[in-house]
TrEMBL record:
Name of the protein in question: Sensor-like histidine kinase SenX3
Superkingdom of origin: Bacteria
Residues annotated as transmembrane: none
Enzyme class: transferase
UniProt keyword Kinase, yes or no: yes
Gene Ontology molecular function, alphabetical: phosphorelay response regulator activity; phosphorelay sensor kinase activity; protein kinase activator activity
InterPro entries: BphY/WalK/GraS-like, GAF, GAF-like_dom_sf, HATPase_C_sf, HATPase_dom, His_kinase_dom, HisK_dim/P_dom, HisK_dim/P_sf
Length: 397
């Protein structure tokens, strides 16, 4: 079973749309420059997932793929850093590698620098190698590191450009997004007011006062959400307001806003989120609210009492939050499409605008993070997001 790190890496790789595509001219130019600077015959950009190494641009050879077991870069990839090896035959990490022994190639000199996304996720390497042993002087070695950063900058520019291409459509639908995100706080207000009104002639005055106070709190959160979501959408995705967040307390607030739906469905919800994270409290609250509301909706549509798990853990690149359910799940072929604006899963007859996941991914990406869907141990879908540790999105790219 793939680890959380591997799932996060695969999602980050998928956002760049590199694997299986023809080599891009801008990436080809960068590997040509790397080979020229280092005075070698071959240079490649490797993208490394949990199973394979994919050469997405190459000079001196045809781009190809190999298993991680055969990859030289995968030997140093788990602890990403700049690596220079004069003669791979005498390096214990590579001496038995098929790229060195002659089974695949006869590599002697090897150098690589990691490709690390703004969210701190290592997705591959910029690698140069040659059939003859050699050394790199410090200036050339530093230049290879700089070129690796340039590769990531090119990938980010392409990704952001693609996103901007759809920003007008996203802004045109923003009124729908706001109404979608505010539906649950409004339901909470109505529910708490109904509880208060059901106290005959305020006989149970303390309980009525408590319900009214909770309604007022939900209304205040709704007002903040309107302000913050409008601020976020005004320029197609403004920068989040980064603060320290008690995640468990934020989840409790979200569940309070969803109280009516939770009671109506009889859902069982388990929370394991004792973490402090950094992010925009209102925007991340809207994300978690959408994910839990979706889990309630799709699980209850199966005619069962929903079982939902909300978990959070620390990983090397930051924090991973997931919402699991026991609903119908999302087929692998649909897991990217459902993040598109107004898209809904195949066979989804449940009422809704289908815009929640699109909004959620935009918010998570504005934090410098990533988001995806996997199978849940509960039997349905596991929708997860990763937030980078201490990354300021204003300077991340």
């Amino acid at each position: 079973m793939r680890t959380a790190e591997e799932i996060t890496r695969r999602s980050a790789i998928a956002e760049y749309h590199l694997v299986g595509e023809p080599p891009r001219a801008d990436l080809q130019s960068l590997v040509q420059l790397a080979a020229t600077l280092c005075g070698v015959s071959k240079a490649v950009i490797n993208i490394i997932d949990d199973r394979f190494q994919h050469q997405v641009a190459a000079i001196g050879m045809e781009p190809a793929s190999c298993t991680r077991e055969d990859s030289m870069c995968a030997r140093v990839f788990e602890r990403p850093g700049h690596v220079t090896v004069r003669d791979a035959r005498v390096d214990e990490r590579f001496a038995d590698n098929p790229f060195v022994t002659g089974e695949i190639a006869d590599v002697r000199f090897y150098a690589s620098s990691p490709l690390v996304t703004p969210a701190g996720i290592a997705i591959g390497t910029l690698c140069v190698f040659d059939e003859d042993p050699k050394d790199l002087n410090p200036e050339t070695s530093d230049a290879l590191k700089i070129l690796a950063h340039q590769v990531v900058d090119v990938l980010e520019l392409r990704r952001i450009t693609a996103e901007l291409g759809t920003s007008n459509e996203q802004l045109a639908q923003f009124a729908g997004q706001v109404s979608h995100d505010l539906r649950n706080p409004l339901m909470a207000v109505s529910g708490f007011l109904e509880l208060a009104s059901d106290s005959p002639e305020m006989v149970n005055a303390p309980e009525a006062a408590k319900s009214l106070a909770r309604a007022e709190s939900a209304a205040d959160r709704m007002a903040r959400m309107i302000t913050d979501l409008l601020h976020f959408a005004r320029v197609g995705g403004a920068q989040p307001r980064m603060v320290d967040i008690d995640l468990e307390e934020l989840v409790r607030t979200v569940l309070e806003d969803l109280d009516s739906s939770i009671r109506e469905t009889g859902a069982g919800i388990v929370v394991d989120a004792r973490l402090d994270v950094v992010g925009d409290r209102t925007l991340l609250g809207a994300v978690i609210q959408n994910l839990v509301a979706n889990a309630l909706k799709f699980s209850s549509a199966e005619g069962k009492t929903p079982q939902i798990g909300i978990t959070a853990m620390e990983i090397s690149s930051g924090w991973r939050i997931s919402v699991d359910d026991d609903g119908p799940g999302v087929p692998i072929s649909e897991r990217e499409r459902v993040f598109a604006l107004m898209e809904r899963a195949v066979g989804d007859e449940i009422a809704g605008l289908g815009i929640g996941l699109s909004t959620c991914r935009r918010i998570v990406q504005a934090h410098g993070g990533s988001m995806g869907i996997e199978d849940s141990a509960l039997g349905g879908a596991s929708v997860w997001l990763v937030l980078p540790r201490g990354t300021n999105p204003a300077t991340a790219r």
